[in-house]
Amino acid sequence: MVSFPITEVTETWGRPTTTTAVPAERFEQYGERVPGYLLDLWRELGFAGFRHGLLWLCDPEQWQPVVDAWTDDLDLPFRTDTWIAVSRSAFGAMSLWGQRTGMSLTIRPWYGWISPFDNSADMEEPFDRDVQILSSLVADAYDDALDLDADDDKPLFKRVLKRLGPVGPDTMYGFVPAIGLGGAMMPERVEIVDAAVHLQLLRQTTPRTILNNPYL
């Protein structure tokens, strides 16, 4: 049973600008591990990219090594969990679903920032789990939540998109050199890079910081 229509997402983000069909085995692998609404999105939209790659619905199997690297041995206020990537941005920000704590982690890897929020109280009912997925995707659409402000205080995404073109399901915009290695957050310092490789590199070079305010 569908809790919400797919149009709740497409009216917010628009139709996908690119998409990859979800392999049938993903529904078997994750049917008991993620909310039904996320499965409905996969079924209807695929592993979709919106607004020329600003937001992506993730293939969790592809992203699991990155998720594991960033969540390994985290000292969180609500203890550990097992996380799956739900969505990510063109710059590699990841929103993660925890088996026990729901939509409980957001990772901004260019700074190493990890924002935790315990949603374990809203995991009993399928409707409540679906609400978490929808709320996360809708919240990302407003106030340029997935864009970044460059060092010149101007938004980055459209400038980088114009300069380099869109990222794909396996790529992202990365700062070269990385911010943690002294790189500048400017459009001319951005390259299209292999997402998994770059995020693993950032994990090795950027210390993780757990933010007390999950809305930062």
Explained architecture:
This protein has helices at residues 7-13, 24-30, 36-45, 60-71, 126-139, 157-164, 195-205; strands spanning 18-20, 47-50, 55-57, 83-89, 94-98, 102-108, 113-116, 171-175, 190-194, 209-210. It starts with 6 loop residues before the first helix and ends in a 6-residue tail after the last strand. The protein is an alpha+beta fold and 216 residues long. The longest helix has 14 residues, at 126-139. The strands form 2 sheets. An 8-stranded mixed sheet has the order 1-2-3-4-5-6-7-10, sandwiched between helices. A two-stranded antiparallel ribbon has the order 8-9. It contains 7 helices and 10 strands. The chain has a domain at 7-145. Residues 8-108 form the GAD-related domain.
β content, as a range? 15-25%
Structural class: alpha+beta
Number of helices: 7
Distance between the termini: 34 Å
Beta strands, count: 10
N to C succession of SSEs: HEHHEEHEEEEHHEEHE
- Rg, Å, rounded: 16 Å
Q: Give the low-confidence spans.
A: none
Instruction: Note the main sheet.
Output: 8 strands, mixed
Strand order across the largest sheet:
1-2-3-4-5-6-7-10
Shape call: globular
Mean pLDDT: 94
**Residue share in helix:** 25-40%
